[in-house]
Structure prediction request, 318 residues.
Amino acid sequence: MRDFYGVTLPGAMMLGTAQYPSPTIMAEAFEASSASVATVSLRREAGGGQAFWDLIRGLGLRVLPNTAGCHTAREAVTTARMAREVFQTDWIKLEVIGHADTLQPDPFGLLEAAKTLCAEGFQVFPYTTEDQVLAQRLVDAGCRVLMPWGAPIGSGMGLNNRHGLRSLRAAFPDIPMVIDAGLGLPSHAAEAMEMGFDAVLLNSAVAQAGDPVAMARAFGLAVQAGALARDADPMGVREMGMPSTPLLGKAWL
Amino acid sequence: MRIEVNGEPRDIAATTVEGALSELGWGEARVATALNGDFLPSAARADQTLRDGDRLEVLAPMQGG
Prediction:
C-alpha cells in the first residue's frame, strides 16, 4: 500500500458518509467495507452537526474533509481553511466544480486553489480529470496525491476513459492515485485496482444501493481482489486463442 | 444590530463574533466561521467586532462524499 502524505493506510478504500438511509446503516456499512478513510463536509450548522461529528469520531477512521459544491477557487480555499480547523487535519479533498451537469472539475480553479492550499501546508487530494497536463501542474503546485475521476460524480458509470486513466497511471508512477467518483459496481473498483491505482473513493454506489451494508462489503472485497491481482502480475492479453491443456499426449481418435 | 447568519437576518446584542456565537447558542459547538466570505479562525473570534450588515457563516461537520 502506497502512502498518502506519509500515512500508510490499512486498506485501499475511502468511503463517503452521505446519503445513507440512517446513521446506523452508515456505521454498519463502514464496518462491512473495511474502509480506512471517511470523507466529510462542512455545511451551515442547523442542529445536526455535533451529533454527526460524534458519529464520525466513533468510526475511528482517518477523516478526509471535502470542498464539495465549491465552484470557485476562493470558495474552495475558504472552505478548506474552515475544514482544517474543525476536523484538525491538513488533508483536504479539493473539489472545484466547473460544470453543473457533469460535475466535472474546473481545471483552472482547481490549480489556482491547489497552489494556495499547498503553500499554506495543506495536504491536497485534488479531484481532477485524467488530463496529464493538469496532473503535472498539480504535482508542480505541490500535490503528492492525485484523484482522477472514473466518471461524473454520482453517475455510477465506472471507468469512462480507460485509456486515459492507464496513461495517467503510467505517466506518474511515483504519485499515489485514487480513483474518485463515478464508480457504481464493485467490478469497477476491482478494475481500478488492477490498473494500478492505489485506492478508490466512493459514496453513492454504497449509500444508494438497496442494501448498503452488503454493497459496502462487496466493494471492500473487490478492492482487495483487485489489489491482489495487480500484485500477482496478470498474464498478457493476446488476440488469438491459445490452448491451456497440453497438446502433447493427446489421443489419436 | 442586524447581521446575516447563515443567510438569515438576525438581530443580536453582541458586538463580537464570539459574543454572537454564544448568543446564538453555539458557544460550545464545534463550528468554523467565515465573516463576509473570509475564514475567521476561532482564536480571532473574541477580537473580531461586528458591524451592521455583516455576513457570518457558521459551519459544522456534515455528511459528505
Remarks:
- The longest strand of chain A covers residues 37-44.
- Residues 165 and 178 of chain A are 11 Å apart (CA to CA).
- Residues 3-231 of chain A form a domain with the TIM Barrel fold (CATH 3.20.20.70).
- Chain A has a mean pLDDT of 95.
